[in-house]
Amino acid sequence: MSTAAPTLDDVRSLTEEVWASFLGEAEPLLPGAGGPTGGWSAAITVTGGWEGMVTVELTDRVAAAVTQQMLGMAEDEVASDEDVADAVGELVNMVGGNVKSLMPGPSTLSLPVVAVGRVARPSDAVEACRVEASWLGEPVVVSVHVFGAAAA
Amino acid sequence: MHALIIDDSRAMRSILRRIVTELGFETAEAGHGQEALDHLEGGLTPAICLIDWNMPVMDGYTFVQKVRERPEWRDITLMMVTTESEHGQIVRALAAGAHEYVIKPFTPDAITDKLEMLGLVRNGVPA
C-alpha cells in the first residue's frame, strides 16, 4: 500500500475543475484562507493501492448554493436537507474520484458520507493536503487525509 | 427517443437530464442498477443509458454485464459517466459492453460530443 499524497497543486486544480464544470456559472472558486465553522461536510474513502480520505467542508450558504446550481433550482427555491446531502455527496464523489486517479492503484472508492458539522475521521488519518478556497465570499475547504502514515 | 439516466445522486441525474433534454431526448431515471434493470424489464427501451459506476444495490459495471447478457437489449447504447478514471476500470467497462466512457467532471459539450460520436445526436437533435 502506498502512503504517498497528492500535491496541493493537483488537488487545487481538480477542485477548480469540478467547480468550473458544474458550479462556475455563478462565480469561480477563488483562493481563500481559513475554513468554515459548522455548515456541511462530506467524506469519501479510497482503499486498495492507496488508502486515504477526501473531505469537503462548506458553509450552510455555500452548500445551499451548490445544491441550487446542481439541481437547477430557482434562486428563491429552498433546498431540503436531503437535497443538500445529495449534492454535497456528489461533490466529494467527484473530487475524491479524481484524487484516486492521481494515486497508485488499483483502488476502490466508497460511497460518500455527508454530515451536518464535521464528518468523523479515523484516528490514523493524517491530513496530507489542504486546499482553502472561497466561493460566494465564503470559505470552502478540501482536504486529503492519508491513513496509517505520517504525511510527507 | 429515450435516455435512461442511472446515478445514485439526484443532483447528477438532474445535471444529465438537463443536458439530454436540451438535445431532445425524453428521460427516465434510476438511482441504481437494479432500478434501471426494472425499468428495462418493464418495457422501457432507451436508445442510451448513462451509467454511474459506484452506486448502492447494484453498481454500473454489474448493470452493464446484466444488460449484455440479454440479446433483446443488444441495441441499447451504454455510456459510463463516472469518476472512475483508472485505465483498468475503463478497459473493464468497455470489455463488458459499454460503448463509451465519460469521466466526471464533464461539460455539456463533452456529453453532446459523445452522443454525436455514437450516432445518437446529429446537429444538436436526436438522430
From TrEMBL, chain A:
It holds the Pfam family CheX. Coiled coil: none annotated. Keywords: Chemotaxis. InterPro entries: CheC-like_sf (IPR028976), CheX-like (IPR038756), CheX-like_dom (IPR028051). CDD domains: CheX. GO terms for biological process: chemotaxis. Residues 41-117 form the Chemotaxis phosphatase CheX-like domain. SUPFAM superfamilies: CheC-like. This is Chemotaxis protein CheX.
UniProtKB/TrEMBL annotation, chain B:
The modification 4-aspartylphosphate is found at D52. One of its GO terms (biological process) is phosphorelay signal transduction system. Keywords: Phosphoprotein. The keyword Phosphoprotein applies. SMART domains: REC. Residues 2-119 form the Response regulatory domain. This is Two-component system chemotaxis response regulator CheY. It comes from Nocardioides perillae.
